[in-house]
Design a protein that fits this description.
- This protein is mainly α and 76 residues long.
- The protein has one domain (14-72).
- It is built from three helices and no strands.
- The protein has helices at residues 14-30, 36-51, 62-72.
- Helix 1 (14-30) packs antiparallel against helix 2 (36-51).
- It starts with 13 loop residues before the first helix and ends with a helix.
Length: 76
């Protein structure tokens, strides 16, 4: 059995990348009912919450946000 490769969101650890990926997956699901602006606002809020944990402080770094934005596939 092969293990799925973790998407690189430019977090410092695989655990951080997995946490951000969970936010991205949820954000993609929100796109079915919400506008891109609403999805991005929710996503930023979730990244800020994640960044409050010392081990994930980089969750709001520009590099991380840019990758997340691209992976969401939104256009605002």
């Amino acid at each position: 059995m092969t293990q799925a490769k973790t998407v690189n969101y430019d977090m410092f650890t695989d655990k951080g990348n997995m946490m951000v990926d969970r936010i991205v997956v949820a954000g993609r699901n929100l796109r079915m009912a919400d506008t891109d602006e609403q999805v991005w606002a929710w996503t930023l809020h979730e990244l800020r919450k994640l960044a409050t944990a010392p081990e994930f402080g980089e969750a709001t770094d520009t590099a991380v946000r840019e990758i997340v934005y691209d992976k969401l596939g939104i256009c605002i």
